[in-house]
Protein backbone atom coordinates (compact mmCIF):
# COMPACT_ATOMS: atom_id res chain seq x y z
CA UNK A 1 0.00 0.00 0.00
CA UNK A 2 2.80 2.42 0.91
CA UNK A 3 4.60 1.64 -2.34
CA UNK A 4 1.44 2.37 -4.38
CA UNK A 5 0.98 5.69 -2.56
CA UNK A 6 4.61 6.60 -3.14
CA UNK A 7 4.39 5.78 -6.87
CA UNK A 8 1.13 7.74 -7.22
CA UNK A 9 2.73 10.76 -5.48
CA UNK A 10 5.78 10.60 -7.75
CA UNK A 11 3.59 10.37 -10.86
CA UNK A 12 1.44 13.30 -9.74
CA UNK A 13 4.49 15.48 -9.10
CA UNK A 14 5.99 14.74 -12.53
CA UNK A 15 2.73 15.60 -14.29
CA UNK A 16 2.50 19.01 -12.59
CA UNK A 17 5.05 21.29 -14.20
CA UNK A 18 3.97 24.70 -12.92
CA UNK A 19 1.68 26.35 -10.39
CA UNK A 20 1.18 29.79 -11.94
CA UNK A 21 -0.09 32.70 -9.83
CA UNK A 22 -1.81 35.70 -11.40
CA UNK A 23 -3.70 38.92 -10.62
CA UNK A 24 -1.08 40.05 -8.11
CA UNK A 25 -0.79 36.54 -6.67
CA UNK A 26 -4.47 36.35 -5.64
CA UNK A 27 -5.25 33.27 -7.78
CA UNK A 28 -3.41 30.31 -9.27
CA UNK A 29 -3.70 27.45 -11.75
CA UNK A 30 -1.74 24.22 -12.20
CA UNK A 31 -0.32 23.56 -15.65
CA UNK A 32 0.77 20.06 -16.67
CA UNK A 33 4.22 19.30 -17.97
CA UNK A 34 4.64 20.52 -21.55
CA UNK A 35 2.32 23.55 -21.26
CA UNK A 36 4.56 26.57 -21.87
CA UNK A 37 4.19 30.24 -22.81
CA UNK A 38 3.99 30.39 -26.62
CA UNK A 39 6.97 31.81 -28.46
CA UNK A 40 6.64 35.02 -30.41
CA UNK A 41 4.89 38.28 -29.85
CA UNK A 42 1.63 38.34 -27.87
CA UNK A 43 -1.19 40.64 -28.95
CA UNK A 44 -2.03 43.54 -26.64
CA UNK A 45 -3.65 43.62 -24.22
CA UNK A 46 -1.76 40.55 -23.12
CA UNK A 47 -3.57 37.94 -21.05
CA UNK A 48 -2.67 37.51 -17.38
CA UNK A 49 -1.54 33.98 -18.27
CA UNK A 50 -1.08 32.30 -21.64
CA UNK A 51 0.10 28.69 -22.04
CA UNK A 52 0.18 26.30 -25.00
CA UNK A 53 0.48 22.52 -24.97
CA UNK A 54 3.57 20.87 -26.45
CA UNK A 55 2.06 20.02 -29.85
CA UNK A 56 0.37 23.42 -30.29
CA UNK A 57 -3.18 22.05 -30.48
CA UNK A 58 -4.41 23.76 -27.31
CA UNK A 59 -4.09 27.18 -25.76
CA UNK A 60 -5.11 28.31 -22.27
CA UNK A 61 -5.59 31.99 -21.46
CA UNK A 62 -6.64 33.93 -18.38
CA UNK A 63 -7.96 37.46 -18.80
CA UNK A 64 -9.56 39.98 -16.48
CA UNK A 65 -12.61 42.05 -17.27
CA UNK A 66 -12.51 45.02 -14.92
CA UNK A 67 -15.69 46.49 -13.48
CA UNK A 68 -15.87 50.27 -13.08
CA UNK A 69 -15.81 51.66 -9.54
CA UNK A 70 -19.29 51.49 -8.02
CA UNK A 71 -20.63 49.09 -10.68
CA UNK A 72 -21.85 45.56 -10.00
CA UNK A 73 -20.49 42.43 -11.66
CA UNK A 74 -23.18 40.93 -13.91
CA UNK A 75 -21.95 37.41 -14.52
CA UNK A 76 -25.13 36.26 -16.28
CA UNK A 77 -25.17 39.15 -18.77
CA UNK A 78 -21.45 38.70 -19.48
CA UNK A 79 -21.86 34.95 -20.03
CA UNK A 80 -24.84 35.52 -22.32
CA UNK A 81 -22.91 38.10 -24.37
CA UNK A 82 -19.91 35.78 -24.75
CA UNK A 83 -22.12 32.82 -25.73
CA UNK A 84 -23.99 34.92 -28.31
CA UNK A 85 -20.71 36.26 -29.70
CA UNK A 86 -19.44 32.70 -30.24
CA UNK A 87 -22.75 31.78 -31.87
CA UNK A 88 -22.42 34.64 -34.34
CA UNK A 89 -18.69 34.19 -35.02
CA UNK A 90 -18.94 30.41 -35.49
CA UNK A 91 -22.31 30.54 -37.27
CA UNK A 92 -23.92 28.17 -34.75
CA UNK A 93 -27.66 27.50 -34.92
CA UNK A 94 -28.10 28.56 -31.30
CA UNK A 95 -25.96 30.11 -28.61
CA UNK A 96 -24.33 27.79 -26.06
CA UNK A 97 -26.23 27.75 -22.77
CA UNK A 98 -24.05 28.99 -19.88
CA UNK A 99 -24.09 26.77 -16.78
CA UNK A 100 -24.17 28.21 -13.28
CA UNK A 101 -21.90 27.11 -10.44
CA UNK A 102 -18.91 27.92 -8.30
CA UNK A 103 -15.19 27.47 -8.57
CA UNK A 104 -13.19 27.53 -5.33
CA UNK A 105 -16.19 29.13 -3.61
CA UNK A 106 -16.58 31.98 -6.11
CA UNK A 107 -19.65 32.40 -8.37
CA UNK A 108 -18.91 31.17 -11.88
CA UNK A 109 -20.52 30.56 -15.27
CA UNK A 110 -19.39 27.75 -17.55
CA UNK A 111 -19.66 27.88 -21.34
CA UNK A 112 -18.72 25.04 -23.68
CA UNK A 113 -18.58 25.84 -27.38
CA UNK A 114 -18.12 22.92 -29.76
CA UNK A 115 -18.75 23.68 -33.44
CA UNK A 116 -20.73 20.99 -35.24
CA UNK A 117 -18.19 20.58 -38.07
CA UNK A 118 -15.09 22.03 -39.67
CA UNK A 119 -15.52 25.38 -41.40
CA UNK A 120 -15.74 25.25 -45.17
CA UNK A 121 -12.50 26.07 -46.99
CA UNK A 122 -12.13 29.58 -48.34
CA UNK A 123 -12.40 30.06 -52.09
CA UNK A 124 -9.27 28.70 -53.77
CA UNK A 125 -8.28 26.80 -50.61
CA UNK A 126 -7.98 23.01 -50.61
CA UNK A 127 -10.09 21.02 -48.11
CA UNK A 128 -6.98 19.88 -46.21
CA UNK A 129 -5.78 23.52 -45.92
CA UNK A 130 -8.98 24.66 -44.16
CA UNK A 131 -8.48 25.48 -40.48
CA UNK A 132 -9.64 22.79 -38.04
CA UNK A 133 -12.77 23.44 -36.01
CA UNK A 134 -12.06 24.97 -32.61
CA UNK A 135 -13.70 24.08 -29.29
CA UNK A 136 -13.75 26.41 -26.29
CA UNK A 137 -14.13 25.73 -22.58
CA UNK A 138 -14.79 29.08 -20.91
CA UNK A 139 -15.22 29.82 -17.21
CA UNK A 140 -16.20 33.27 -15.98
CA UNK A 141 -15.33 33.87 -12.32
CA UNK A 142 -16.83 36.71 -10.26
CA UNK A 143 -14.03 38.07 -8.08
CA UNK A 144 -16.19 40.85 -6.65
CA UNK A 145 -14.01 43.47 -8.34
CA UNK A 146 -14.16 42.08 -11.85
CA UNK A 147 -14.50 38.92 -13.88
CA UNK A 148 -11.71 36.48 -14.59
CA UNK A 149 -12.06 34.51 -17.82
CA UNK A 150 -10.40 31.11 -17.96
CA UNK A 151 -10.45 29.88 -21.55
CA UNK A 152 -9.15 26.66 -23.05
CA UNK A 153 -9.07 26.71 -26.86
CA UNK A 154 -8.63 23.30 -28.52
CA UNK A 155 -8.20 22.32 -32.17
CA UNK A 156 -10.69 19.56 -32.92
CA UNK A 157 -10.65 16.67 -32.84
CA UNK A 158 -8.70 17.10 -29.61
CA UNK A 159 -6.82 14.16 -28.16
CA UNK A 160 -8.31 12.76 -24.95
CA UNK A 161 -5.12 13.72 -23.08
CA UNK A 162 -5.44 17.34 -24.29
CA UNK A 163 -9.12 17.59 -23.28
CA UNK A 164 -8.38 16.12 -19.86
CA UNK A 165 -5.42 18.47 -19.35
CA UNK A 166 -7.53 21.54 -20.23
CA UNK A 167 -10.26 20.51 -17.79
CA UNK A 168 -7.68 19.73 -15.08
CA UNK A 169 -6.22 23.22 -15.46
CA UNK A 170 -9.67 24.74 -14.96
CA UNK A 171 -10.36 22.50 -11.96
CA UNK A 172 -7.05 23.54 -10.37
CA UNK A 173 -8.19 27.18 -9.98
CA UNK A 174 -7.47 28.36 -6.44
CA UNK A 175 -7.72 31.57 -4.44
CA UNK A 176 -4.40 32.27 -2.77
CA UNK A 177 -5.58 34.70 -0.08
Highlighted features:
177 residues; alpha+beta; Protein Transport Mog1p, Chain A; six-stranded antiparallel beta sheet; three-stranded antiparallel beta sheet; 3 helices; 9 strands; disordered N terminus
What does this structure look like?
This protein is of the alpha+beta class and 177 residues long. Helix content is 24%, strand content 34%. The chain has a single domain, classed as Protein Transport Mog1p, Chain A. It has helices at 2-15, 75-90, 160-171; strands spanning 16-22, 27-32, 49-52, 58-66, 99-103, 106-113, 134-142, 146-155, 174-175.
CATH architecture: 3-Layer(aba) Sandwich
CATH superfamily: Mog1/PsbP, alpha/beta/alpha sandwich
Give the domain tally.
Answer: 1
Strand fraction equals 25-35%
Sketch the major β-sheet: 6 strands, antiparallel
Q: How confident overall, as mean pLDDT?
A: 84
Number of strands: 9
Quick description:
The chain has 177 residues and is of the alpha+beta class. The protein has helices at residues 2-15, 75-90, 160-171; strands spanning 16-22, 27-32, 49-52, 58-66, 99-103, 106-113, 134-142, 146-155, 174-175.
